[in-house]
Write a structure and sequence with these properties.
Structural class: mainly alpha
Strand order of the largest sheet: 1-2
Shape: globular
Mean pLDDT: 95
Strand content: 5-15%
Oligomer: single chain
CATH class: Alpha Beta
Number of strands: 2
CATH topology: Malonyl-Coenzyme A Acyl Carrier Protein, domain 2
Low-confidence stretches: none
Radius of gyration: 14 Å
Helix content: 55-70%
Order of helices and strands: EHHHHHEHH
CATH architecture: 3-Layer(aba) Sandwich
CATH superfamily: Malonyl-Coenzyme A Acyl Carrier Protein, domain 2
Distance between the termini: 41 Å
Length: 121
Amino acid sequence: MEAITAYVFPGQGAQYVGMGRDLCGAFPVVKKTFEQADDLMGFALSDLCFRGPEEALRGTMNQQPALLTLSVAILRLFREAMPGSRLAPSFLAGHSLGEYSALMAAGALDFTSALRLVRER
């Protein structure tokens, strides 16, 4: 029997200060995704994710773009590291905010649109 893979993206509340920092330092595609988010947001979202303060990261207007950005960065890393892999998902799902990441992974939204939507959400 062939394995079936699903990607499930997290919702609000999964954030923590330092999320993505190690990946950003190790993988250019992750760094590029955070830089793109910084440009689109008009401030250093990456600094907020990597250094806090936690109270500011917890705010919905920051938390949701931060989680979306990390999810997209990891998705891009998977796709770059394993092109054509058996780990390509058969199913995509997301909890609440994670639905936007799933839509982006499915190609229904681009990163710019998804980031703007979750910022206004």
